[in-house]
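We emphasize that the prediction below concerns an isolated chain of 433 residues; any contacts that depend on oligomerization or on bound cofactors are therefore not represented. The input was used exactly as deposited, without trimming of termini.
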Amino acid sequence: MGKNMSFIAKIKINPKKLLYLAGLVVITSLFVLPQRALLVQDDDSTTDQDQQLLNDINQQIDDREKKIEDLQKQIEQYKQNIATKQKEKLGIESEISLIDDRINKKNLDIEAQENIIEKLILEITDLETKIADKEEEILLEKDDLSGMIRKMYEYDQKTYLEVTIGNNNFSEYFTQLKYIEKLENSTKDALDHLKTLKSTLEGQRNNLNDKKTEVESEKAKLEGERGELEGEKSYKDQLLFDTKLDEAKFQQLVEQVRQEQVQTNSEISNLEREAQQRMNNDDFVGLGGDIIQGDASLTWPVNPKYGISCGFHCADYPFKRWFEHSGMDIRNPQGSPIGAAASGYVVIAKDAGMGYNYILIEHGDGLATLYGHVSRIDVSPEQYVRAGEIIGLSGGMPGFPGTGKFSTGAHLHFEVRVNGIPDDPLKYLPAIL
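Result of the prediction step, given as a token string:
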């Protein structure tokens, strides 16, 4: 009999370790749960404070959203006013009135951009608060599971004899087993909940990073908007200085600009045709390297993070009544490096001093790119350049070299020409991320 009892005493509990180990949590829950309850009770005031903070943040977000909507309505009204005035007869008074509308619109654009940034920052604060709450909840869940696993391990070391002796009768023993079975399910649910919490936390962190990236992008656009506002004001001052509000002087100025535009386009077209003929006749052999053949894929000549102020044939082009916009204006600080959009040969590197400076590069297969408002030129005609190679510095701010008479802010004027005809640059450039 003694041997049998000794043998039984050495038998370990083997089936469903989690089931039996979890049973001890039921036994010890009388001690563990009240402590957790006290912990939760102590955190109630903190939870209420966090919830109140989130409520306040969400209210501020709603207020910013409403403000942005109101500003957008005002901006839309100015857009309509500008579109209407662009159809009016070109004259000094209508031009000044148009400039004033653009300045007012630009002020609203800046205010809207500032509210968008403030809204994004509030959303970041909201996410950071939620992330902190989730991290705290995960820590509590981990503590509970750690304690549970530790107690379950201790219980797994007990023998059948110890378990039997530990209960007054079989009814208590089977009641304990039922609790263990329920707790096993609860343990699985707790683990699943912890996985869900971690997944939610990861999603919130990704969202937070996206919001932070968006803030940086919106700040860059805001900087560009402010630069354009200063440009609009400078353009208005220059126009008033040149014309003294005299209609005859204004019309003379307009005609001068039109003639310069015609002359520039003619020069570009002629030299571009000559370059294409020379490339076809292999006159450029030995000068460089590869040229484009077939479908073209270009790279951005400057960083597009500041946004596009005016696209190809855009309706709100400031000088639309004077001539069509044949390219795309990419906002960029004065003096930003310009990279060649693709490998090719420099056809023109026009230095007009305080006039309109530009560079034309022929890439082969009838494709060429033009870079306007260049404040510094670093290449020469017939020079071979590779994609991304710095060819000069951007300009566009009134009063700077290379800008010419008319510009409303620092930017690069970028054109894509196919067989001498301007085309939309966005067809050839990668999407802005």
